[in-house]
Amino acid sequence: MRRWIRIGSGSAMAALSLLLVLWAGTAWAEISIQAAVDQDEVYVGQTFTLQVQVEGNDSPGEPDLTPLVDFTVEPRGGQQNSSESVSIVNGRMSRVSHHGYVFNYGLTPKRAGRLVIPSLAVVIDKQTYRTQPVRIQVKQPEESDDFKLRLTLGKERAYAGEPVPITVTWYIGKDVNGFTFNLPFLSDPRFTITGGDEAKGPAQGQKQGNLIRIPAPGGDIVAEKGNGVLDGENYLTVSFARTLIAKEPGQITLPQATVSCQAVSGYRQGGGRDPFSGMLPDDFFGRSRQVLRTVVVPSNQPVLEVLPLPAEGRPADFSGLVGEYSLAVTASPTKVKVGDPITLTVQVAGPSVAGAALPSLAEGLGLNDFKVPEEMAPGEGSAVLKTFTQTIRVRHSGVRQIPSLRLTFFNPASGRYDSAVSQPVPLEVAESRVVTAQDAEGATAVGPEKKAIETVQDGISYNYEGTEVLAVQVPVGAAAISGWWLVILLLPPGVFSLILAGTLLIRYGRKDPAGRAARQAQRQFQAAVAEIGNGVGPVVFFEALGLALREYLGAKLRRNPAALTYGDVEPQLAGLGAGPDLLTRLRQVMEQCEAWQYAGAGAYGDTSQLREMAVRVVDELEPFLNKGGL
């Protein structure tokens, strides 16, 4: 909306001069950058905030973080820091414009000592600017009688590829107010980490009230609160378990984990300069404010000896699985005709089936007996049970069973390669009979049927019966009917059929508008995301993306999208089979879109990455929502 200001002729030149000065002041803004931290004295494993602040430009390039070798870096997004103000004093107008951008990162020191955050480069309009170095004093955390952290391995020797349970237990002897875990082994490239199925819900024997979520790379960890004894002392505990799979043989010392918390060291009574001291106690018991201190608790560092898999006796069909596994095969239906589809279900069970693949059906079933699809299903399930579903077809009636399938693994208990073999599945296969036109007419294909010879005056004649001796008879006048006559004859029923089909489609759409909206939801979401331009501000971007995602989920789940949150949709999506990883990424997108309303400078993330994540999440949700009939 334009606003017009009327200026008298005597002040026209003064107003023009003022506008030129204001334009010049905004056109040649000086660019500067600096690095800032929220604290300069921390412990190893304690995360602090680093900000890279840009002044004079609101669209800089990402800082180069490769020099931060002494720190683990966690991007926390960024946001524009621009403002504009206009003031009029004694009839003179002045305008001040400020353009800036702030990048936010969480840094976790890897070692103790006097560490330096080196100068970081930022490219702005093809010119490189650098921050000043920042020095950080990093102290080694020390264990106390009040807090202890333990990493416990299920075994100290294992083969490469063998699942090894690890339990993390935090022993708490004092009240705490907020805590943060730093678990480097979860991102250690020497391991594959599996487990985490408890995120779907409490396990048997667990209570929902005893569960607590711990933020971690790749998604929250669901831990359990309880009680424990260590070194003869009683503690409250927070614990969870994962499974480590070492990729290569060798002696591996696990990196030290830490947990930082705000421990309550006492209570400060009211007094001093607070005029309301003693009038409004801080809690029901009349105690004043809590006195908190930062405590960083280090863990032990267990050592895992990883043995190589023996090369001797390794079969060609070795699956790569290490541990004891079982294989079960079922089929439905088992009474079929040649060519009928059979649903084959293969289940692999064992200590860790995340990397399990479906055994080769072409080799196990035989291509001469069964038709097998070229692409195999990836399988789905929990950490200890994986289910594969395939459709196969019998090629001939001589097939009597689905043969046994074989899964070869290495058994650490025996130290040799072993196989799990499924039981064969009996089949009853009937021949498929080809139906011909003669079958439909009720005639038999035995050739012309001859009758007895009869004597007539004109001589001897043979009488034949059968379709072979029929001659094509053209009705009188049929040859005169041209193609145009056929068009004229068929046009009225054709038009009637089109009108009837259109009417039925309209009635179907009006009968189930929610179903129609659900079917069009993904296409409308993609169109809405495509309309969000890259040049819009972060507030507009997150609001538009969040609205598009809520409208998609609302249409699919047939719920009001206006105030839809992750907590509203998570139980229904989990019930439809959506896995924890997919649900975690959905939660991250929805919470990031909502954060701008409540959070400060660190709320905004990389908009392009968030857009791509949202599109991938919707693409992966679509099969589950369609499978559920939504």
Overview of this structure, please?
With 630 residues, this protein is an alpha+beta fold. It folds into 4 domains: 111 residues, Immunoglobulin-like; 160 residues, Sandwich (Immunoglobulin-like), CATH 2.60.40; 117 residues, Immunoglobulin-like (Sandwich), CATH 2.60.40; 115 residues, Four Helix Bundle (Hemerythrin (Met), subunit A) (Up-down Bundle), CATH 1.20.120. The protein is 22% helix and 36% strand. It has 9 helices and 39 strands. The strands form 13 sheets. Strands 12, 14, 16, 17, 18 and 19 form a 6-stranded antiparallel β-sheet that branches. Helix 6 packs across helix 8 and helix 8 packs across helix 9. The two termini are 43 Å apart. 23% of the residues are buried. The N terminus is likely disordered.
The overall number of domains is 4
Distance between the termini: 43 Å
Q: Can you give the helix content as a percent range?
A: 10-25%
Counting H and I runs of at least 4 residues, what is the number of helices?
9
Q: Enumerate the spans where pLDDT stays under 50 for 5 or more consecutive residues.
A: 1-28, 271-281, 438-453, 597-604
Number of strands: 39
Largest sheet: 6 strands, antiparallel
- Evaluate the radius of gyration: 37 Å
- Stated plainly, the CATH topology of the largest domain is called Immunoglobulin-like
